[in-house]
Design a protein that fits this description.
By secondary structure, the protein is mostly helical. The protein contains twelve helices and two strands. A two-stranded antiparallel sheet has the order 1-2. It is globular.
Amino acid sequence: MTKENRISKIKDILINNNTYFILLLMFIISSFLSDTFLTSMNLRNIALQQSGPILVAIGMLFVVLTGGIDLSVGSIMAVGASVAAILIRDGMNFIPAILIAMCVGMMFGIFTGFMVAYGKFQGFVASLATMTIARGTAFVFTNGTPIKLADGTLNNIVKKEFMFPIIIIAAIIVIIFALVQKFTGWGRIVIAIGSNSTAVQLAGIRTKHYLLSVYAISGILSALAGVFIAARASTGSATVGMGQELDAIAACVIGGASLAGGKGFVVKTVAGAFVLALIGNIMNLMAVPSYPQDIIKGFIIIAAVLLQIVTNKSEKTV
């Protein structure tokens, strides 16, 4: 192998795995900035905190792959948390309560998907409407009051004695959707719709069904994420998920997804979500006040996205 070929190969590796290098760089920097970063308790807390946001980011990714956007994910998280908390408070076992909350989330997702696929709404507009409706629904359900849950109910899914089920569930979902995206016709068609929906339609494929399905999946995963947040706090609240849609979009972009559709990967999106998690975690460990955190986080996200843009341009010229 010539020197030029070796350089080209190394360049390809760096370009194709830039998200992982960003995550590794953040991990190394965080390790030097705080002595408590690498403790088992802190790493476990990061995993617990990200179990919900990762699911939201995965749901967002499949919508983004079709060239759409889903601004309703944070509000659907609130609905999921509220529905599960109300049912459990009223005596229902937490497992069927979670399943019902996921079904409610799916219905909101289908509502958005129907407007996009059959009503020809822009995803931004349709999900903006759903975002408002879902958040209002959560406040109506809870009457604006947080619902405190008894110990031994929903919080069982975050307990150490049960091996932190939310981490296990999130890992299983990541694996399932990574395999679905790579090895199933559904995953390939979703990507194709974002790349060239006209060509997909001319091939005789009913794109409307696929558009409906990605929004439904986003709704299901968002509601489950809301349940995870409620479990950690032992409280269901209509304020759950505020601003989560922006973090989910950022995770997708940092993970290399194109907002124009047709490009993105589940595992890289998860890595993007962890980049955001490390940014927040290290600033908390360093006792950075919350308001400056937002400013610093914003500039770090810009830097990460610029790196993606630069490496994507390099990829086209390789």
